[in-house]
Write a structure and sequence with these properties.
It comes from Aquimarina rubra. By secondary structure, this protein is of the alpha+beta class. The protein contains 4 helices and 6 strands, in the order H-E-E-H-E-E-E-H-H-E. It has a 6-stranded mixed sheet with strand order 3-4-5-2-1-6.
Length: 123
């Protein structure tokens, strides 16, 4: 495993930790490395029940990653209405949805060729 891969694994671990801190739902990791012409290596997708929880998840992810890895997102988009917030860490892109918006856009369906890992939560 290369050093970059280990960094990506650590980043994903901290992102998941940040989501779980504020009880984000339906966490999935899409591995896009085997698909041609993708913008990143992984998508991490989750949803919250309200715009308040979506913002809490986004803030928790940023705080957890910043504190443990000293890393900031390259770009954050969608915080204004908090229906779909995208956090871009270059190799890993995090999508935080409200449930009905996630169902409407069906990112997992669009990227059906990706290897999907579902994270089990105990809350």
């Amino acid at each position: 495993m290369t050093k970059k891969e280990i960094g990506t694994d650590q980043l994903i671990t901290q992102i998941i930790k940040g989501i779980e801190e504020v009880k984000g739902n339906d966490i999935s990791i899409l591995d896009l490395r085997e698909i041609e012409n993708t913008v990143c290596n992984y998508f991490v997708i989750c949803n919250g029940t309200s715009n308040t929880q979506v913002n809490a998840i986004v803030n928790s992810i940023q705080k957890t990653v910043s504190k443990s890895l000293k890393d900031k997102p390259w770009h954050v988009e969608g915080s204004e209405n908090a229906e779909w917030v995208l956090i871009d860490y270059v190799n890993v892109v995090v999508h935080v949805f409200q449930k009905h918006i996630r169902e409407f856009y069906d990112i997992e369906g669009l990227w059906g060729d990706a290897k999907t890992t579902t994270i089990e939560t105990n809350y």
